[in-house]
Amino acid sequence: MNSTKIHLSKLDLHYGKQHILKNIESEIPEKKITVILGPSGCGKTSLLRCMNRLTDLHPDAHLSGKILIDGTDILSSNEDITNIRKMMGLLAQRPYPLPMNIFNNVAYGLRISGRKKKKYLHHRVEHYLKLVNLWDEVKDRLHDPAVALSIGQQQRLCLARGLAVDPQIILADEPTSALDPQSSQAIEEKFMELKEAYTIVIVTHILRQAKRIADYVIFMYMGEVIEQGPVNEFFENPKQEKTKEYLKGMFY
Amino acid sequence: MRKMQVRLSRAMRNNIHGFWMVICLALVIILPVTMAAGLYWKSSVLLHENSLLSLVFSKEWKPISGQFGFYPFIISSVWVTMAALLFAAPICLLTSIHLTQYAKRWVLKVMHPVIDILAGIPSVIFGLWGILVVVPFIGNYLGPWLGKQVSGYSILAGAIVLAIMIIPFVLNILIEVFKNIPDELTEASLSVGATRWQTVKFVLLKKGMPGIVAAFGLGMSRAFGETIAVLMVVGNVTRIPTGLIQPGYPLPALIANNYGEMMSIPLYDSALMLSALILFVVVLIFNLISRYIIIQCDEKC
Ligand SMILES: Nc1ncnc2c1ncn2[C@@H]1O[C@H](COP(=O)(O)OP(=O)(O)OP(=O)(O)O)[C@@H](O)[C@H]1O
Ligand SMILES: [Mg+2]
Question: Which of A52, A92, A98 sits opposite B203 (nearest CB)?
Fold first, then answer.
């Protein structure tokens, strides 16, 4: 029932001499929403980037420890890095549509992994655009450049792009911070639906949002995990001083 | 009352400064316009007697008998420029992609000033290098290897020298283009399972395309107008070039070699002015198109 999807063990991240993540230990439950909280600069984004191995892009980043996904360590496994990344859809703080039309944005991940049949692509693109509630808004202009969409639409498009490669995990870094209240709510509701099928990890600064959507909460401070636990316990009965202060809004 | 005076004179000084700035600005703008007008005025003598089209497409260059066909020069210019661009393009693209996407950060940090220094080398030095290295290589090895007896002074020599000259210039712009593409775009592509190279091919090249076109447009206008380095190695033979290792005679070389001599021949100076005007307009157009693309891109991206 409550099995672990991602197991972080003794995870340390350095950027050059800077120690960014310190001995992170966590078990992220499968098919639940896990929210990462913490003041700015505490390493939330960095933690997400580790899980997707985007830290590989930084020549001066050094990562040690283990990230086990379904028991396999993605930091040491011989698995192709592209397959590891495909397991996880990434949603950035601001949407970054690829420089191509709406249709191709969603089809991109499928195309580059070799699935090129037109009919199949059409079917998939429609499916995922419907899944993120974007289909009705764009079905008549699938061949317009994706940058012409509103920010909220772009964020949903990026979600569809990530989902189209059939990941098991969704990593979202402040996915609603650039959105208006309505679009935010739409995304939030989407996540509530998606957790039926996906393991979701969200970074947010909005405590109320965390309370609304989280099943499990991880609280970080200065690169360390201070406290973690099920959402009710975390908000109603925090054990650490730092957590209590944070919940009072002290670190804002 | 005194206060009033101070304020007045300040305002006046301000106005005077403003006046000079406007004058300087006007100079910068008016100078090229008057230059173009002057060139046109001087060359109009020739244009009265022949139509521009017939001059541009006529192959006969016999100033003594009043025949001024620019075709050999224009074709030489086009060949040298195109060949140079063809050599430089893949090198610039691959180098800039490597430096911005694959290389360690210190490599770019070291390369940046190196490229700047290369861009600042006077063109006469490139010309010398061409005479000492490229020309003998073509004359002694490449020509015989192709079964041709050539001096080595050729379109190819000009193109190679030009390519080397514009590489640092174009490279600098391309590096900026690729650096300005947000990392998040690369990450978005990678996170749906693309490889590094797929990301370059499908996302970065596409996103950077306007900048890439503009970079090569600027490189092209540089190459088209470059005079001394090309003049030194290109052979300067008035003939329509029949091959890359044959000599040519580009427009800038024509002007530089002949202006001030042979001026007693009627219409000769007018013909040289017309070639200068053609050069001026072509380079201006390349530049304008490139700048326009850059501006368009800045607004959209
Ligand atoms: N590429 C990098 N090179 C060096 N240091 C970095 C890099 N990226 C992040 N850092 C550092 O890592 C620390 C954590 O940054 P991170 O972006 O993970 O914080 P965050 O918790 O996501 O903050 P925010 O809430 O503001 O987004 C910061 O001190 C930051 O300066
Ligand atoms: Mg962050």
Answer: A98
pLDDT, tens digit, 9 for 90 and up, residues B90-129: 999 999 999 998 888 889 899 989 999 998 999 999 999 9
Tokens describing residue A144:
């317009």
**Ligand at shortest distance from the CA of A42:** 1
Identity (one letter) of the amino acid at A237? N
ipTM: 0.86
Q: Which of A59, A82, A158 sits opposite B193 (nearest CB)?
A: A82
DSSP symbols for A182-242:
HHHHHHHHHHHHHTTT-EEEEE-S-HHHHHHH-SEEEEEETTEEEEEEEHHHHHHS--SHH
Q: What is the pLDDT of residues B44-89, one digit of tens each?
A: 888 888 888 888 888 888 888 888 888 999 999 999 999 999 999 9
Which structure tokens are listed for B274? Answer: 């017309």
Regions of chain B with pLDDT less than 50? 1, 301
Within B50-154, residue ranges assigned H as helices are 52-57, 71-97, 105-120, 123-129, 135-137, 143-145
Whether residues A109 and B192 touch (CB distance < 8 A) is answered with: yes
* Angle, CA B155 vertex, CA B151 and CA B158 arms, to 5°: 95
Q: Which CATH number is associated with domain B57-300?
A: 1.10.3720.10
Interface residues of chain B, partner chain A, Cβ below 8 Å: 104-105, 182-195, 198, 202-203, 206-207, 300
User: Cα(A224)–Cα(B10) distance, rounded to whole angstroms?
Assistant: 60
**φ/ψ (deg, to 5) at B276:** -65, -40
The domains of chain A are located at 98-166
Segments of chain A with pLDDT less than 50: 1, 250-252
Q: Across the interface, do B207 and A99 touch by the CB < 8 Å criterion?
A: yes
Question: A–B: how many Cβ contacts below 8 A?
Answer: 71
Average pLDDT, chain A: 89
